[in-house]
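Each field is set out as follows.
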Amino acid sequence: MSAQGDAGIPVTAKAALFDLDGTLIDSEPRSRALWRRLFAGHGIDCGEDVLDGLSGRRSREVIEEHLARFGRHATAERVREELTALNGAPDLPPVRLVPGADRLLRRLRRDGMALAVVTSGGRRYAEDHLTRCGIAGHFSTVVSAEDVTHGKPDPEGYLLACRRLGVAPGDAVVFEDSAAGLQAGRRAGARCFAVGRAARTPALCRPADHAVEDLALAPVVGRAEAGRRRAGTGAEG
């Protein structure tokens, strides 16, 4: 896996596919607080190792995996409803745009690259936060939890995004902050950048090809920009 110091060797792609939570928006503190609150309300121990295992995955699948811990009378639907209600609590940490995200998105769009979001969250959640953070207009498509049968680490979401954009997975790069998301991107056949927490955690970024802590410095360029660099244009100034 390459480190952020490889910024001088750009990766060429036709499309860039982004996870949402923890990659484009800093929602991890809110997400972890929300899961802690849900588990604690049922007297369930929820350590950091458990929370790490929830990152990047659809809430539906997480709840089904842990459903037995909520008691024999619990149903997945009821637990999901409770999670949705808790998400409206005013004292949860706020969601903010990840530093460098807007700069990278603007640069890639100027270079003519197709952009998509592939999230484990619901469509309404994704569109709301993309709009609130002012980056919704950068993306040609959003693949949400409702669009797939299998969530990350299954590659279905990334393969669907590539079909919608009309690009082969091998011509796409994926930006992810979780092990599950990076595994999904690799299984789809895309090159993967570990960002955020994954870029700082060797155990999480093993499936990645590169790691970048500052999105604005991600060494990714479109085909047009790569051609200009090879031709030596734009070298002055």
